[in-house]
Amino acid sequence: MTRHFLIDTDLTQAEQTQILDLALELKHAPYSRDTYAGLDDHGASTAGRKTVAVIFDKTSTRTRVSFATGIADLGGVPLIIGAGESQLGHKESITDTARVLERMVSTIVWRTYAQKGLEEMAAASKVPVINALSDDYHPCQLLADLLTIREHKGTLAGLTLAYLGDAANNMANSYLLAGVTAGMHVRVAGPAGHLPRQSVIDLATARAAETGGSVLVTTDPGTALVSADVVATDTWISMGQEPDSADAKDATYELFSSYGVDGAAMAQAAPDAVVLHCLPAYRGYEIAADVIDGPQSVVWDEAENRLHAQKALMVWLMDRR
Ligand code: CP
Ligand code: NVA
């Protein structure tokens, strides 16, 4: 049966580990898999190269380039469809779009707003659908983040990750769900009104009970940070949530001002803590320049790992078709 990757918990802990193992393998041997090349075991051409549709309803640098490069590395053809370039969403329903795409492409990757849209696409598609960021989750980013933590810390289970900032956004939700799936202790801190919704906390808590991880949600950044092995943050203003005036923007910055990852925050984490940011970053707001550009930052490895993690994910999903 076709597997999709719409939310972090679509993978069990064992499956997540398989994908991270494969990602490391592909990082060291980037062209060792011909998943989309249409070659048989002896390298003979069979069905021809396969196409992967990568659809963007929101802007992107990393996701766009890493999927395009990854699909090419795997022998396939990336078909990048920018915002407003297809009939999807205005002239044609998600279901009808899925029915057409599944006849022509081997995987559908989609960055969009509503998680419900991704669920509708997956329900109508016989080919795997991958969430390339929605308002609710960014699961591909988390595969890259976990790979980066594993490379720098040697392990995942048992580590403590502190996320500071907009704890109601897609990254906070995915840190909770993917982190506990890996057996980590995930603490998220944000101001009241910007904390994860109860259904996400419940899902994370249930998964944590299976893996030995744990969940902590707080408005106090210090409670999240104490002795953390990994410190993570993200923009205070996500795509699609831009304030409609300069005053509203200033009010947002003010609301989040005590949740920035700066030197004082890092002093509360473990001395060898690593810092993650999915990027793009706003220096002087959610992260200080001397932190993101300093020795504890692993954000450039994290960005590169989007490529390796997503290649592994695509191979893994195609192996299960
Ligand atoms: N981190 C991330 O998804 O970056 P882009 O928005 O540039 O794709
Ligand atoms: N929370 C951010 C992540 C960007 C990769 C956003 O949705 O804009």
Quick summary:
Helices cover 41% and strands 13% of the residues. With 321 residues, it is an alpha/beta fold.
Number of helices: 12
Give the CA-based shape: globular
What would you call the structural class? alpha/beta
Order of helices and strands: HEHEHEHEHEHEHEHEHHEHH
What would you say this structure looks like, in words?
The chain has 321 residues and is of the alpha/beta class. 41% of the residues lie in helices and 13% in strands. It contains 12 helices and 9 strands. It has a 5-stranded parallel sheet with strand order 7-6-5-8-9. It has a 4-stranded parallel sheet with strand order 2-1-3-4, sandwiched between helices. The longest helix is centred in the C-terminal third of the chain and has 21 residues, at 299-319. The protein binds phosphoric acid mono(formamide)ester and norvaline (NVA).
Topology diagram in text:
Blueprint lengths: L12 H16 L22 E6 L5 H12 L3 E5 L12 H8 L5 E5 L3 H9 L5 E3 L7 H15 L6 E5 L5 H12 L3 E5 L8 H14 L2 E5 L2 H5 L4 E4 L12 H11 L6 H4 L7 E4 L11 H4 L6 H21 L2
Parallel strand pairs: 1-2, 1-3, 3-4, 5-6, 5-8, 6-7, 8-9
Helix pairs in contact: 1-5, 1-12, 2-12, 3-4, 5-6, 5-12, 6-7
